[in-house]
């Protein structure tokens, strides 16, 4: 059986090269920037998520998956979000 130090000295065929790591780092940064831009231009996403969490914290359901399914399939949800967007525009 090989010792740990000898295992650590062998190259890992699945490891990324320095160039690949740099490319991955840049990709992650670009993805975060794109996500941030998207969220800033789509306030409805913010209202969906914040409303969902607010309801969870207020109601503290035992079955979160069932609660989430009910919350996001509520036929009144689109109008709630729409009304919130209208209120948000009036304040701004």
UniProtKB/TrEMBL annotation:
* Record Pfam families: RIIa
Domain of life, per UniProt, equals: Eukaryota
Q: Which InterPro entries match?
A: cAMP_dep_PK_reg_su_I/II_a/b (IPR003117), RIIAD1 (IPR059162)
- Residues in domain RIIa? 51-73
Q: Which organism is it from?
A: Papio anubis
Coiled coil segments of this chain: none
What is the official name of this protein in its record?
Answer: Regulatory subunit of type II PKA R-subunit domain containing 1
């Amino acid at each position: 059986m090989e010792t740990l130090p000898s295992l650590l000295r062998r190259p890992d065929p699945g490891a990324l090269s320095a160039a690949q790591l740099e490319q991955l780092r840049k990709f992650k940064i670009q993805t975060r920037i794109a996500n941030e831009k998207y969220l800033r231009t789509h306030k409805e996403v913010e209202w969906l998520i914040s409303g969902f969490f607010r309801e969870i914290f207020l109601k503290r359901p035992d079955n979160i998956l069932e609660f989430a399914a009910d919350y996001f399939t509520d036929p009144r949800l689109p109008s709630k979000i729409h009304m919130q967007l209208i209120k948000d525009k009036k304040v701004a």
